[in-house]
Design brief:
The chain is an all-beta fold. The chain is built from no helices and eleven strands. The strands form two sheets. Strands 2, 4, 5, 6, 9, 10 and 11 form a seven-stranded mixed beta sheet that branches. The radius of gyration is 14 Å and the shape is globular.
Length: about 120
């Protein structure tokens, strides 16, 4: 069974940095996309960043130039480097893996990111 586990969230001051990690196990399809959604109270779920097996990336406009998603060697591990954090980045961040062949997704439990002074 596919499992997705996030880590690295926490409390950081504005302008600071955090790195989120996501480890997925049980991946059986090579063609997939991994990334993060986030959801803040009173706001709709937003796609933050994603990266395909081939390295193609997508970012929300609000995080371009500040966040970097990477998938260095292990295809089942991705990182989200978040720099120049703003209070509006505060949300629960959910890692996911989407299998393009089956058009199905698996989600992690979420990790809280709080940006506050």
């Amino acid at each position: 069974q596919v499992q997705v586990v996030e880590s690295g969230g926490g409390l950081v001051q504005p302008g600071g940095s955090l790195r989120l990690s996501c480890a997925a196990s049980g991946i059986i399809f090579s063609n997939n996309v991994m990334g993060w959604y986030r959801q803040a109270p009173g706001k709709e779920r937003e796609l933050v960043a994603s990266i395909s097996t081939g390295g193609s990336t997508n970012y929300a406009e609000s995080v371009k130039g500040r966040f970097t998603i990477s998938r260095p060697n292990a295809k089942n591990t991705v990182y989200l480097q978040m720099n120049s954090l703003k209070p509006e980045d505060t949300a629960v961040y959910y890692c996911y893996v989407r299998y393009l062949v089956t058009a199905t997704s698996k989600w992690g439990q979420g990790t809280q990111v709080t940006v506050s002074s």
